[in-house]
TrEMBL record:
Assigned keywords, A-Z: Isomerase
Limits of the Chorismate-utilising enzyme C-terminal domain: 167-424
UniProt GO molecular function: isochorismate synthase activity
Source domain of life: Bacteria
Record-given protein name: isochorismate synthase
EC nos: 5.4.4.2
Species this protein is from: Spelaeicoccus albus
Keyword hit for Isomerase: yes
Amino acid sequence: MLTMTKQHLHARSYFIDGVGSAVSPFDSELPTDLTDFLTRLPASGLSAWVRGHSGLVGWGELSRFETKGADRFADASDFWKQLSAGADVDDAVRLPGSGPVAFGSFGFSDRTDIPSVLIVPRVVLGRHSGRVWVTTMSFDDEPAPERLGAPSPLERPRAVTVTAGGRDDWEETVGKVVDRIRAGEAKKVVMARDAAARSDEPLDVRFLLGHLNAHYPTCWTYHVDGMLGATPELLVSSHDGAVHSRVLAGTFYNNSGDHDVDVEAARHVLAKSKDSAEHKYAVDSLVETLSPLCSSLEVDCEPFLLELPNVIHLASDARGHLTHRSDGSRVSSLEIAAALHPTAAVGGTPRGRALELIDELEATDRGRYAGPVGWIGASGDGEWGLALRGGRLDEDGRGVRLFAGGGIVGESVPEYEWLETVAKLAPMLAALGVRTER
Ligand SMILES: C=C(O[C@@H]1C=C(C(=O)O)C=C[C@H]1O)C(=O)O
């Protein structure tokens, strides 16, 4: 349900001089008055979307919009259009992510009770193309936005224990899915599982984000309202009409410790029909939805290998240009994300039947796992990834519900699918200081 806001948004973006371009927003030392940037961020209420040294980190909550159900994307789009349309904007930066922005995280399914959310922070630190800026946002009657606080040391997680749901049960379910696929009910179904990581003490989100960003610099490290992780999969980014999407499907997880050996083995294994078919379903589902929105769209002829520390994926990039609507406007990044979601990379093929099978057979409520996560700006431009390789912070802040899944096709072997999810949990487990899953 949409609540109308009468508040008038003010946003101001300005460059901060003297911040070196080789510094990540998560590095603890910035050679300016923003020294010890990360340690000065509040330990809660952070929003983040950072890849390597570029991205946005927001803090302070100026406005929050929550919604659920089939209209969640439309509701959130309306909220943001209304708030940003009348905004009084002084943007001296004019780079992707400058000016007013909202961070968002959306439920995977129309049926989850876990709300989807858009958060408008009071302050955003942004970095793009080596330039660094700050955006402040406020309402007419609001006090000045929050400044960075006094430094507080980052707390490394201690004594985290992990409890995963039963391996046998999950493999049995995957076996059922394989049977149903072989019986012709669907071509591909993505099945996920969860695991509970708990500590006696509150987890320091700043530490987890810093760890993920440092170890997975080619992934998008995200945190929105307790949903956090480092995803390698970009659902869509749009900037001035240029769109980009990175589809992943097909995963190699054997880590021999020797990079060249792994890449060679991945090349061999992923070329097999199981993985290339799985990948093709995901690319086809993207193209089918994106091409009607674009005047041009190009997709890699052959997938490439995306090498990450824990897994190697088959990946394809799609790049295109958006068409204009009759009134001259363009579809927003959030509207594109809504149209694309759920792709076959996280749902399956055909989409409707795959989602029914997930509903019927998957034991966990995905909540916002595998849903779009990212940010939107006043023009509708923005970046949305899939909330993978992460989890949802528990209400008390002392644990994370971790999620991982994989695409099941007729040739899938349940035992290997389990091992693939173990590899996909590794980034968060390492950030939590847990070596192996128990
Ligand atoms: C479902 C996940 O990942 C997705 C499934 C993949 C696969 O089945 O090969 C690969 C990348 C993602 O699209 C996950 O990480 O939990």
